[in-house]
Amino acid sequence: MTRRDEARRIVVIGASVGGAFAAAALAGHGRRITILERDELPAEPAVRRGVPQGTQPHVFLHRGLRAVEELLPGVDADLRAAGGVPLDTGRMAWLGEPGWAPQAPQYEIVSATRPLFEHVVLRHVRALPGVDVREGTTVVGLRVGERWSVDLADGTSLSADLVVDASGRSSRLPGWLAALGVPAAQVTQVDAHVGYATADIAVTPGRMAAPGIAFLQTPDRSGGLALPVEGGRWLVGAVGSGERRPGRDPEAFVDALRALPDPALADLVEGGVGHVAIHRQTANVRHGYERVRGWPDGLLAVGDALCAFNPVYGQGVTVAALEALVLRDAGPILRGDVGALMGRVARAADVPWRIATGEDLRYPAAEGTVPRATAAFSAWTRELGRLGAHGDEAAHLAIARVYHLMASPVTLLHPRLLARAAVARVRGYGPSTARPRVFASDP
Ligand SMILES: Cc1cc2nc3c(=O)[nH]c(=O)nc-3n(C[C@H](O)[C@H](O)[C@H](O)COP(=O)(O)OP(=O)(O)OC[C@H]3O[C@@H](n4cnc5c(N)ncnc54)[C@H](O)[C@@H]3O)c2cc1C
After folding, report:
1. Residue whose CA is at the smallest distance from ligand 1 atom 4
2. In 55, 129, 262, 382, which residue has its Cα 20 to 30 A from 296's Cα atom?
3. Is 360 in the pocket of ligand 1 (CB under 6 A)?
4. Is the beta carbon of 12 within 6 A of some atom in ligand 1?
């Protein structure tokens, strides 16, 4: 493209959620978008090599599901039609650091396996005008001249005005940029060394009273979760950090669940565990591409390739969708403007990054120091959690809004919440929230 020309020929690297959302955001306006995907994509929802985390439970935050619906209207209905389970996160059995959270309505989400979610999203993206998905096509390098050349493993190349890297956590972009002589971006990493182990369990209809279970891990203890998914099944996961990372042995998996402060998850899986899938690539990793001097024009990175999160906060898919909304709202993409757009895309990860790293830096296994403001914010959030665990629904809902990325963290400093905390400090916190009914047979 010549100066002030619009990018019309776009190549997206990776056909997982980040690439699919970016393509959805950019489609139309006479653009031709080719998504290049290394894997052959399964005809039916299935875990695939390029997205190994597909075996693990994925929570799709309310803000993310709304963003996806804005980008691809109809995904929500199709997810439900394919067996995705709608549930109110406020009705789940939540056990946090200070105790049980109160039962009060929060946000509706649709719970489904990661492969089903991706499958539905991609079906919508394939139907968009000017979008083409090329499977079994691996990108091996980038060259830039008047236009971009995207080099493929079969020795051919594709030219483009705009290249979007959505190739995930294992993106090779840093190496490709080095080969182009572009200065390296600063990489910030906070690794709490969290591991997941997950089993897929058949649950008899009517057995559960809670629509889902979440035992949050803390620096001192492991956690776990259970979510209903399509096909009458539940994904039950154990989550631990450092030496407490759970293994793939089924008996050890049940033991890990049994060691949690409540027996519900162990009782849920008892006698029903077959294969256990583990995953340990969970560090928060952020590439500061937006701050690279001499960033080549016509290049963007999105999704995990730009910023990957510790998944326990359920943010990755939502952030990829929020980044895509930035692309959608950018209007015509002109030569010379893409560096600034990279900055706006990167900012979509700011708040989720602070939430995840502020919490993770408390873990003994994580290296690094927490900025003072982040530590104070994290401590205040825990104080609100404590109010919630003593029946304060407003405090609990305030945290949920921020964690679902529906409200700014600043809202947690509302004078009413400060006053509630002050009163609790003086008069006491009151009785703890009672354990909710998890199984229908619970009293
Ligand atoms: C254990 C675990 C649990 C998680 N739970 C949640 C959750 O509850 N909620 C949530 O929102 N997020 C969760 N996440 C995060 C979520 O999985 C990621 O944020 C999301 O998948 C990022 O999407 P992406 O498209 O950027 O990258 P990926 O999903 O990693 O996809 C990258 C794609 O690029 C392709 N590719 C790679 N290299 C090339 C190449 N050279 N050429 C062509 N194609 C290439 C790959 O095959 C793949 O299809 C979890 C992650 C993990 C590890």
Report:
1. 311
2. 129
3. no
4. no
Decide whether any atom of ligand 1 lies within 6 Å of the 316 Cβ: yes
Q: Strands across the sheet with 148-152, in order?
A: 139-144, 148-152, 157-160
Distance 50 CA to ligand 1 centre (A): 8
Same structural domain for residues 167 and 265?
Answer: no
SS3 63: helix
Q: Is 59 in the pocket of ligand 1 (CB under 6 A)?
A: yes
- Same domain assignment for residues 46 and 133: yes
Q: Are strands 162-165 and 299-301 parallel, antiparallel or unpaired?
A: parallel
Residue 105 lies in a domain: no
CA gap 372, 171 in Å, rounded: 32
175-189 pLDDT per residue, tens: 999 999 999 999 999
Kindly report, residue by residue over 238-271, the tens digit of the pLDDT.
Answer: 999 999 999 999 999 999 999 999 999 999 999 9
To test the ligand 1 pocket, which listed residue (198, 317, 345) has its Cβ within 8 A of the most ligand atoms?
A: 317
Domain region containing 222: 194-279
Residue nearest to atom 37 of ligand 1 (CA): 167
**Looking at the 3D structure of the chain, how many domains does it have?**
3
Do 263 and 147 have their domain in common? Answer: no
The tens digit of pLDDT for each residue in 301-353 reads 999 999 999 999 999 999 999 999 999 999 999 888 999 999 999 999 999 99
| Residue bearing the CA closest to ligand 1, atom 50 | 311
DSSP assignment of 81-93, as one string?
HTT-EEEEGGGSE
CA of 196, closest atom in ligand 1: 1
Same-domain status, 181 and 208: no
Residues 210 and 182 grouped into a single domain: no
Nearest CA to ligand 1 atom 46: 50
- Are 250 and 302 in a shared domain? no
4 lies in a domain? no
> pLDDT (tens digit, 9 = 90+) per residue, 390-424?
999 999 999 999 999 999 999 999 999 999 999 99
The tokens for 160 are: 């483009």
Answer yes or no: is 261 within a domain.
Answer: yes
Q: Which residue has the higher pLDDT, 430 or 2?
A: 430
Averaged pLDDT for residues 267-289: 96
Q: What is the pLDDT of residue 368?
A: 72
Q: Are 259 and 215 in contact (CB under 8 A)?
A: no
The answer to whether residue 380 is domain-embedded is: yes
Residue where a domain stops, chosen among 260, 279, 298: 279
Atom 38 of ligand 1, nearest CA residue: 167
Decide which of 293, 322, 355 is a domain's last residue.
355
- Choosing from 11, 12, 13, 16 the residue with most ligand 1 atoms within 8 A of its CB, the one to mutate for a pocket test is 16
Burial of residue 203, with CB atoms counted within 10 A of its CB: 0-12 exposed, 13-18 middle, 19 or more buried = middle
Residue 235 shares a structural domain with residue 378? no
Dist. CA 104–CA 390, nearest whole Å: 13
User: Does residue 3 register a pLDDT over 90?
Assistant: no
